Each structure stands twice: as structure tokens, then as C-alpha cells.
Amino acid sequence: MHAEAQTQTASGSAASAGSDSTHGAQLIDGTAIGRLVRRDVAEEVERLKALGITPGLSVVLVGDDPASAVYVRSKGKACEEAGMRGETIRLPADTSEDALLAQVDRLNADPNVHGILVQMPLPRHMAADKVIRRMRPEKDVDGFHPVNVGKLSIGERDGFVPCTPAGAIELLVRSGVDTRGKDAVIVGRSNIVGKPMAALLMQDAPGGNATVTVCHSRTANLAGHIRRADIVVAAIGRPEMITGDMIKPGAVVIDVGINRVNDASVPKGYRIVGDVHFASARDVASLITPVPGGVGPMTIAMLMKNTVRAAAQIAGV
Ligand code: NDP
Question: Is the pLDDT at 78 greater than 60, yes or no?
Fold first, then answer.
């Protein structure tokens, strides 16, 4: 795996960025790969515009959660950069569930809106699953609607895949990692990351055909499972939980985790780390995603990609 991944990535530019023979694994540069995806998206936007279609994404933000506000702003900016129409609908935290559902109905019916995203988490008095089910699956660019979850499960390609796991697969593919026949271990079974990641890695498609094991908090001998993996995907939400001694030499490590840990030595008082202990894992892996700068930048890039595809599919072009 080690030699193979390195040879293949040598030609793949973005994955070899940041490589340094004195530090073990090569870095998978999500910022650079995300830029490539966005460039492809911008080209597709041009094609659609020439046909009279401007792809449009509407993001609904309920309440004033500061982290959600940051995500929503960056989604709007990414739309603008790609030449798409981006709209943010801000609703007060005390909006009723019915009013939110009525908003979703309006967006479902609006021909200028191709992608709808309701930013999670929602205030407690709203049922997220009800809101997700209300969206037209054809506009559910987050890929959370049961129709899209089902399409992923049965391998129908016209559905939408959740952006973070789709981005993780894109990193593997664009880094030249051959997943076929490899043992992949995913730690985490959430509907947003772990489960769709398992479906993607096992499907008969590029970035798939792996033999997949999904671990969670009840898994016995977690380290034992991770130790035999050619590909490790960490989606746990526990800072630096997977350490280098748990990783098979030459494995590819995809760290989805984003955790804030206190650090008095930096002006901000905190730093962002993944679910993998980067320094020790880098010593044994062949390829590894850094945090930040790995999976994170891919999420919005894949959202843009899903939205242009929604526009093309709805228009039938
Ligand atoms: P969830 O909290 O929904 O899921 C975490 C999963 O990890 C659960 O399946 C849980 O098991 C499992 N888990 C927790 N503790 C352990 C343990 N000690 N041993 C084994 N398994 C464990 O998180 P998400 O999937 O939403 O997110 C995971 C991480 O990814 C977070 O750090 C999050 O911030 C990050 N993230 C990053 C994104 C990005 O854009 N890069 C987007 C989304 C998430 P169980 O089911 O048994 O409870």
C-alpha cells in the first residue's frame, strides 16, 4: 500500500504537496484538492449559464448559533466565487416549525432554487427529520433525505451523497489511492459521516470496492480493528484518540474530526485538532489528511458540486 500510494500520488500533484521525506507520510492537501473541485464546478456553472440556467443554493439558518453563522457565510462566499446564485434566509430562533416547513415548501417550488440546505442543528422545538423529509429530494444537496440515503445504499448515482464523506472519497480518488480490495476501517457510525462513508467505500465505483468495517463506541478491541486497516477513517469527535501505535505501517489515514482543544501557548487560547494524533500517525502512515486543511475544505466544495448537479438534473441538461 505504501509504495503504491506514493508512486500514484507523485503524479497527482495535490496529494504530494507538503510531502517531506523526513516526516513520514505525505499530506493529502484538502485545500488544494478542494480548489480543483471548485474549478470544475465553476466550469460547469459556465456551461449551464450558457444554457440560461444559473445554479442557485438557498441556505436556511434558524437562530444565531455562532458556528453555524460562520459555516453559512462561507457557503454563501463559495457560491459567489463559483458564479452561482447563493441566498441565505435567516429566521429567528423562535420561528415555529410550521413556518420553517412553509419556507421549505416555498423553496421546493421556486424554479430558481436548485439546492436547499437547512443548517443544523435546529432549535430544540423543531424536528430535524421532519424538515429534511419535507425537502424535494432533487434539491436536497446535503443528501440527508431518506430517498437520497436509499439511493446511496442501492447504488443509484443520481441521488445526493452527504458532502463530508463525498469529500473524503474525492480526496482518496484524486490522491490516486486504489481502494479496491483494501481493508477500510471507519470509526464512527453517524448518519452524516460514518454510515455514508461505509456505503461509499463498499460500492462498486471509483473510491469504492473496499472491504469495510464500521466501529463505534461499543466496538470491542477498537485498536485491533484499526491496526489491520489499509485505510482508516476517523469520524469520532474525540481529540487525537487514534494514535500512531494503532496504525498499520503504510496505511492511508483520513481524519474527519474537528475538535477544539485548549492551548494556552497560542493567542487564541485553543487550537483545532482531529480525531487522530497527527504527529505519531504521520510517522507510520503513507498518506494522511491534516486538520485543519484536510477533509474540512472538501465539504463546501462538494456542496457546490452537488448544487450544480441538482441544477443540471432538474433542467434535464
Ligand atoms: P457523532 O457524534 O454523530 O458520531 C461519533 C461517532 O463516533 C459515533 O458513532 C460514536 O459511537 C463514535 N464514538 C464515540 N466515541 C467513541 C469511542 N470511544 N470509540 C469508538 N467510537 C466512538 O459525530 P459526527 O459523525 O457528526 O462527527 C465526527 C467528527 O467529524 C466530529 O469531530 C465532527 O466535528 C467532525 N465533522 C467534520 C466535518 C467536516 O466538515 N470536516 C463535518 C461533520 C463532522 P456511537 O454511535 O456508539 O455513539
Answer: yes
Last residue of a domain, one of 90, 121, 137: 137
Percent of the chain at pLDDT > 70 equals: 93
Determine, yes or no, domain membership for 142: no
* φ, ψ of residue 6 in degrees (nearest 5): -70, -40
The backbone torsions φ and ψ at residue 271, rounded to the nearest 5 degrees and listed phi first, read -140, 165
- Distance, first Cα to last Cα, the chain: 40
214 lines ligand 1 (CB under 6 A): no
- Centre of ligand 1 to C-alpha 237, Å, is 4
Min mean pLDDT across 20-34, 104-118, 230-244 is at 20-34
Residue 67 is part of which domain span?
52-137
Shared-domain flag, residues 184 and 291: yes
Cell numbers 434566509: residue: 89
User: Tell me: the pLDDT tens digits for 164-193?
Assistant: 999 999 999 999 999 999 999 999 999 999
Q: One of 29, 75, 103, 203 is an active-site residue; which one?
A: 75
Catalytic residue among 142, 178, 255, 275: 142
